[in-house]
Amino acid sequence: MEIIMIEGTVISDEIKVLKTDNGVPLCRFTFSANSTNLNCLITGKIAYTFLYEVENNTVLSLTGKINRKNQFIVLQS
Fold first, then answer.
1. I need a surface site. Which of 25, 38, 66, 69 has the fewest CB within 10 A?
2. Could you tell me if residue 44 is left (phi over 0), alpha (psi between -120 and 50 degrees) or otherwise beta?
C-alpha cells in the first residue's frame, strides 16, 4: 500500500473510540478531503490523544494508507 498525505476537515459529530478484543483502542471518524468523505481509523495510544484534541470541523493534515475496505488508516496526524 502506498502512503499518502491528505488535508481536510473532520466532519464527524461524534468521534468514537472502540475497544477491540486485543485491548488496542480504535478511533473512528469521518474526514472530508477534496469533496470526498473518508472513513478514517486510528489505532493505539494516539487514538485517545486524537479523541481529546480533535472535534467537528477541525482542519487537519493526515498521513496514512487506504486499506482494501476503502478506509483511510491514519499513521500520523
1. 69
2. left
Determine the Cα–Cα distance for residues 35 and 48; give it in Å rounded to an integer. 27
pLDDT per position as a tens digit, 1-40: 699 999 999 999 888 888 888 888 899 999 999 889 999 9
- Distance CA(73)–CA(64), nearest Å, equals 5
Structure-block grid coordinates of residue 25: 483502542
Residue 76 has pLDDT above 80, yes or no: no
What domains lie within the chain, and their CATH numbers? 3-74 (2.40.50.140)
Q: What is the pLDDT of residue 1?
A: 66
